[in-house]
Amino acid sequence: MREILIRQKQVLFFIIAGGLSAIVEIGSFKVFSTYLPQFLSREMNFHGIHYPLSNIFSTCCGIITNYFLSIWFVFERGKHSKRREFAYFMMVSFVSTLLSLGFFQVFYSFIFKDNIDLRVYTLSPEMISKIAAILLVSILNYSVKKKVIFNG
Fold it and tell me: Which family does it belong to (predicted)?
């Protein structure tokens, strides 16, 4: 029974940490995707890839936030040293970043074509695509980080 409660608490904290990291990632994506195209005209479409630097920079902001929230609130330290744990975390995050970028491109190019009006804020296709990609990759992240990195 205690193990079930601990697992539920961990999942809840993972969702909270993931939500906060997603806010950082989405917010920084909004900033980068607004201002980078003013300096780099190819940012909006670099050989068919939409907002590549904005995606990469914002994902890095989200990863760093998620790492610290994960070690402070979500997972207990595993059997790995801090250095190895960080390296594994970054490797998993790198693969997750590639997946997220791929999902973003598919969503932005083929699925989300129109704005979504929420009355107080309008979500653009690039923001909807970013949010959808984050949600999809988050499921994989929890499983891999728990089993491989933090040995849960």
Answer: Belongs to the GtrA family.
